[in-house]
Design goal:
By secondary structure, the chain is of the alpha+beta class. It is built from one helix and two strands. The chain has one helix at 19-31, and strands at residues 2-3, 38-39. It has a two-stranded parallel sheet. It is elongated.
């Protein structure tokens, strides 16, 4: 499961990713035969 940041993190350099970016990550994982779901 991949998901974006929903609250404060210890590292201020982390940034939220878009829905499109999460979907792209899942597509790459699935292409490598890795089960993947995205939570928005």
């Amino acid at each position: 499961m991949v998901y974006t940041i929903d609250r404060e993190t210890p590292d201020r350099l982390l940034q939220k990713v878009s829905r499109e970016e999460l979907d792209a990550i899942c597509r790459r994982a699935r292409a490598a035969n890795i089960s993947c779901t995205a939570s928005y």
